[in-house]
Amino acid sequence: MIANIPYLAVAGLIIIGLYTILFKKNLIKMVIGITILESGVNLFLITLGYRLGSIAPIFTGNSEDALMSYPVPQALTLTSIVIGVAVLALMLSLIIHIYRHHGSLHVSKIGGDDQ
Amino acid sequence: MKGMSTIVKTIANISFPIITIYGLYIIAHGHLTPGGGFQGGAIVASGLALIAVAHGSSWIESKIKEHDLSLFESLGALAFIGLAFFGIIFGGVFFSNFLVDTSMLFGNIPVGGAADINTGGTLPLMNFAVGLKVIVGLFAIVLVMALATHKKEDSS
Amino acid sequence: MNIIDMLLAHAPALIIAIPLLGAFLTPLISRVSDKGRNIFAIIILGITALFVFYLASDVLANGPITYVFGSTAETVQSSTVIRILFEIDALSIFMAIIGIILAFVAVLYSYAFMEKNTGLDKYYTLLLLMTTGMLGMMLTGDMFNFFVFLEITSIASAALVAFWTNKSKAVEAGFKYIVISTVGALFVLFAIALLYGQYDALNMAKIAQNLGLSGFTFLDKIALVLLIAALAMKGGLAPMHMWLPDAYGRAPASISLLLVGATQASLYGLFRIVFTVYGDVISLPTVSIGWILVLLGIITMLIGVVMAIIQTEFKRLIAYSAVAELGYMALAIGTGLTIVANADPTITLQTAPFAMKAIIGGLFHVINDALDVGLLFLVAGAVYYATKETSLNRLGGLARNMKYTTVFFIIGLLAVSGLPPFNGFASKLLIYESTYQLNPILSIVAILSSILLLAIFVKVLHAVFLGPALPKFESVREVPKSMLVAMAIIAGIIIIFGLFPNLVVSNLIEPAANALVNNNSYLQWLTGGI
Amino acid sequence: MIDMILETLQTGTGFWNPLTWIVAFVIIFLIVFIFRGMGNKSYKKGTGQTQAFLSGNKEYEKHQMHVQSSNLYWGWTESLKWVIDMLKKMHTGNVSDYVLWFIVVMGLLLLSVGLI
């Protein structure tokens, strides 16, 4: 049971993230929702690589046969975090521009052209 | 945006070199311990962001231009790609780690749990390149965003 | 000579590396000269195109090529495949040809089209990055690498959609696009994590092999659903297409052209996942994935054409018709999939030969759609360049001033609505005939949408180019030569494809369709039998 | 080589050869042209014959006569108003709704593929 708690946290984070994206009306809050969703996925990746009782996969100062968690998911998570930073920066700068045009961050301000 | 009080400025000035050295340490030991170009670069950039907040973005703007930052960003990226291209020339494959097992820089092969800093082949060099790009890139983002909000305040 | 041979041997890596290198050199060159930078971007993509065409001839003659980064293919054939590698078969290189044609034409078109804008060093950097991401998605053989390239493409294209930041609608479209892309890509990453957790592999071929061995678990089903939904959204299938008209309609015309390629790269990912990665187990779900694709395709076509008819913005109208065109591909590939992935052993590709024709038609339509819709976007951009006007209600009589543009528009019109003797007809004929044998209603809907597409574009032809000369457009002149050349390249390819369809089908499309259907050839290198 | 270029595309049950089509098109065009030549030759330019007749109303200036795009296919949009209104309501332009559609489709797929 205790081993499943990270997966429950993953599910919780993803649901909170989606809820925030879907139902919050402030653009900044939507961006926060995306970040939470991303954290959920990253946590899932990290959890996959963990073996019970393992240590961090560091070569220096550890014996070669020590039980280590898998390094590949951590590398993947890191890549995902880097991409997340780029996406976050882009979204925030677009929000700055939207605010300049409308003076508001309400989601209904960015309406479509078909209405 | 104006700078903050003298206390904040002084503390920021004192902590900035410590943060920078810590970040550079993380970059330099990327191939041995957790960390690397991005993580260390983010730490250094956060130190720069601290300075930007403490002294105000207009003060920073008078010292550094965003235009010059993009030059260093390109240089970092070019160094990274260039190393990958050198892999074709010296190692026969793109991204080949051609420095490993040579007597050159970072050429040692680690032995049993005791890797020294002179290992890793091209990896430390790529970490430096990425580190440069991330320091400059993240700082440029922070600076541009600070200036963008600051211009808005001026006009309203 | 020796150096050239050496470079050609590394063509798979260089196709990605050269635009990437170009992207980071652009800001430096732009300090020296603006004109030099524009020409530099054209040259970079020209060189990349040469490598793509060389690689295409190689792959089509000798079968799939595997390129491992930082190592050789032999060293990764052991039990764990952890290296990033590119695997290029006929389908990937077919998509890459589409991508590089679009990218090259886009950069050529930008030369004059974007001339008066500021911040062009960023524009060209992002354009080259987007090309890198697009080509990477098409060539990679690694799931996580696919995700990374997907995100690179999304970030670069969202920034480019919002390039005209002084227009509030453009910024909003960019924001919508990046939100949609990020959410979709995160679910792709989640699915990749599910697959990685079960099979300890990120390599597509390795995952496919392990999936075939272990059956079809519940987690595999969830991963499949997440991948299909996310990639279908990025590929603009209804009812998740709504970001597409926003993004296509508001981006600069050259970027709309490139976005067509990015969208199709996502569709390629969808096909690759369904046919190759899940190739051995796709017949196991009770609900046929093929029918799901067919259903999505039908909805997409109908929504696309109905919404296109009522549009008043030129590029938004073309964007909706692009949505309809995407529906054709989903319909055709889905039709093929219903037969390929059939639990009933009596129904195979041999007993139902129309499935193969459907896949060929669908893939042929991928390249035709890219060219036709792309040409229309370029014409819309040319009209905007000459008149600074996007609303169809305020345009008129431009044929008097812009003769060449009008001719290109008519070519695009006839091709996109599938009239003989243009290329759209050949692929649509294949789709009609094969879907008819699956279910007549499908081909009826397809023909109906085609007719409506013709009606839509005849309306545009009348509203924009025909009619009396309007006094406010008296001073309008033909657009600069580089834009005309860009349009002429695409129009020329359309005419060649239209006149000699079998040349294209038998040399380019059929190998791609075979590569799509037989995932064995994709998995071959794992066992060392290249 | 030439054979390969001129080959006919087999579409399963039919075939498609653009060059044949073009030849046929030219022949039909010639026939139509001949028929057209046999028509009435009483058309005269610059006379009342060529002027538009708008129920006796005065003719507008040329540039005012341009039919705008939103006036075209008026009947179609009017008769399919319910469909178009429904679709317009669907395209809100609100990014939350876009994500909602994605979640809905994903949920439906999950129900149909994952659980059945």
Overview of the structural elements:
The complex is a heterotetramer of chains A (115), B (156), C (530) and D (116). Chain A has 115 residues and is an all-alpha fold. Chain A has three helices and no strands. The model of chain A has no long low-confidence stretch (mean pLDDT 88). Chain B has 156 residues and is mainly alpha-helical. Chain B has one domain (6-155). In chain B, helix 2 packs across helix 3 (57-63) and helix 4 (66-91) packs antiparallel against helix 5. Chain D has helices at residues 2-6, 18-37, 74-79, 81-90, 95-115, and strands spanning 9-10, 15-16. Among the domains of chain D are: 1-37; 81-116. With 116 residues, chain D is mainly alpha-helical. Chains in contact: A-B, A-C, A-D, B-C, C-D. At the C-D interface, helix 7, helix 9, helix 10, helix 12 and helix 14 of C face helix 1, helix 2, helix 4 and helix 5 of D.
Outline the secondary-structure elements.
The complex is a heterotetramer of chains A (115), B (156), C (530) and D (116).
Chain A: H1 5-23, H2 27-48, H3 71-102
Chain C: H1 2-9, H2 11-32, H3 34-62, E1 65-68, E2 85-88, H4 90-113, H5 120-139, H6 143-161, H7 168-199, H8 204-214, H9 218-234, H10 243-250, H11 253-277, H12 289-309, H13 314-340, H14 354-387, H15 403-416, H16 423-438, H17 440-465, H18 481-499, H19 501-517, H20 520-523
Antiparallel strand pairs in C: 1-2
Helix pairs in contact in C: 2-3, 2-5, 3-4, 3-5, 4-5, 4-11, 4-14, 4-18, 4-19, 5-6, 5-11, 6-7, 6-11, 7-9, 7-10, 9-11, 10-11, 10-13, 11-13, 11-14, 12-13, 12-17, 13-14, 13-16, 13-17, 14-15, 14-16, 14-18, 14-19, 15-17, 15-18, 16-17, 16-18, 18-19
Chain D: H1 2-6, E1 9-10, E2 15-16, H2 18-37, H3 74-79, H4 81-90, H5 95-115
Antiparallel strand pairs in D: 1-2
